Amino acid sequence: MSRLYIALVGLPARGKSLLAERLRDGLEADGLKVEVFNNGILRRLYLGGDSALPEFYNPENEEGRMQREQLALLGMRQAGEFLRAGGQVAILDATNGSRRRRQTLERHLSDAPLLFIECVNNDPELLEAGIRRKAELPEFSGLSPEEAVRSFKRRIAYYERIFSPLREEEHLARVETLSNRILEERSCSALPFYIQIRDILTSDRVLNLYLLRHGQSEFNVQNRIGGDSGLTALGRRQAEALGEYFKSFDIPFIFTSSRRRARETASPIIRDHPDSRHIMIPEFDEINAGLCEGMTYEDIRLSLPGEYAARQADKYAYVYPGGEGYVTLKERVARGFRKALFLSGAAPGIMIIGHQAINRVLLSLFFFRRDEAVPYIYVPQDEYFHIVSTHRKTLLELVRFTGRNHS
Ligand code: F6P
Prior knowledge:
- By secondary structure, the chain is an alpha/beta fold.
- It has two domains: about 5-200, P-loop containing nucleotide triphosphate hydrolases (Rossmann fold); about 205-400, Phosphoglycerate mutase-like (Rossmann fold, 3-Layer(aba) Sandwich), CATH 3.40.50.1240.
- The protein is about 40% helix and about 15% strand.
- The chain has 14 helices and twelve strands.
- A six-stranded mixed sheet has the order 2-3-1-4-5-6, with helices on both faces.
- Helix 10 links the parallel strand 8 (about 255) and strand 9.
- The relative contact order is 0.12.
- 6-O-phosphono-beta-D-fructofuranose binds near residues 226, 286 and 287.
- The site of 6-O-phosphono-beta-D-fructofuranose has 10 residues, from helix 14.
């Protein structure tokens, strides 16, 4: 029977544990027996309090180094036992940052192939978010959030002193967390399960995404585009109906654009989900119509007929003067989406309240549409999209949350 060790590599807060879970869930869904062995959990279990202090990670702290080494060996032993008892993939989740540590792994895990996967995340915003998430761990409960962040950053600085990226290892893959892009791969194709692993590394996992468009806004009624108007009375009723509808849903993360109409739509849902986190992602702001912001389509037709005609002729490729087009939106929307996934971790449900053009682009990330069809995807204000997506399948349903007539 084929068996494989996977050792994750990366500085703290790079998304290793999330990747470990994604790999485990994805491979399990393919029928494999998989388990994650996490050094951090072992450390908290056996060493507790003091091992949260930055000094514990100082490479010159010989005692700390020995203790971490012992825990790493324990993790390796458990992983080995798991494979010998019939497990198929053992995932070792730890920084495994120095060549020396990786040599220890190579020596101890020699009864099955060993694949190293490095998580690369150099995006300052995501990194900060990852650090903030770590600072919420119970081991920092005695510190204020700011102190916890400072302490964790000092821990990272110690790790940086000894960290070296993958280079000499026999089987390696380096993956960029934000884009799910494989930066480098070596001798992977012959490894067991690598085809599935590669699919998982390069695809998003969405447990439940509720994708909504904001309720009717003042500008919607006036047929004006863009801007930052608030909701109309109808829009507020739509928002209340949404709040009522989603009351019993488990949605730990609610993402909106930074626009008023999106935030106002979210507010009844946030009110009814006091434990959920509301995070604004400016990458979800509606398409910037540049010179045409605040105009009606009729205004554009009359005062800028050339622009109007150009957009009619090729709505996907058209870029508003001084603004954006669908063709330029994709990158920022995809970036916002990855940010949302990173921030929400393995949350059972996330909600995104966006806009017409934004939601079209978000939908096109899941469902192949020819470019020219994307600007015409149907994005209603009284229905939402429910999306579930793994490396194997994507499901989408359009669900009505209220009757069409709110007046
Ligand atoms: O009309 C509402 C709106 O969200 C505008 O703010 C935006 O410019 C437009 O929809 C995007 O849709 P389309 O690309 O079809 O003009």
